[in-house]
Amino acid sequence: MTPTLFGRWQTRILLFAVVGSLISLPFFVFSGANPVFFVVLIYIAAFGMVWDSLYNYLQQYRWDHDWPAALQLIAGIWEGLFFGILFNLIPLPGVPQDEISVGVYIVHYSLVWVVMFTVSQTVMRIFFPRWRFFGGQWL
Can you tell me the distance from the alpha carbon of 29 to that of 118, in angstroms, rounded to the nearest whole number? Predict the structure, then answer.
């Protein structure tokens, strides 16, 4: 499947809203109902939509116009590092720097990303056949 930009955005929003929220729920509960993990999800999803524009542009230069799983892995690492550095350098509204440590951020982001990647490579292909054949669009 070669995702379109609109398909990338739809998939990102769906995965962050469903999978990301489910993974963030235990962090929310064990942090004493601190919503910072959901705010982080929103920021990463929003920044990711900008990155998707760049990924879609770069993908056009590949001979098959596709983005293999190895490059998705690199993109996930890059996004996590980018937001982690941004999070530590610039105070973002809704994300107090003293409420989430770097270690907790790494665990949270890694879990969310690995589960989202796995779901996108397995479950999405089974339950959303339209998604697979229409450039990643599920609507």
Answer: 24
Cβ neighbors of 24 (< 8 A, separation 6 or more) are 37, 38, 41, 108, 112
How far is Cα 84 from Cα 79, in angstroms, rounded to an integer?
8
Q: What is the pLDDT of residues 38-52, one digit of tens each?
A: 999 999 999 999 988
The model's pTM:
0.86
- Cα angle value 81/20/76 (rounded, 5°): 30
3-state secondary structure of 131: helix
* Beta partners for residue 97, in sequence order: none
Contact predicate 115/107, CB 8 Å: no
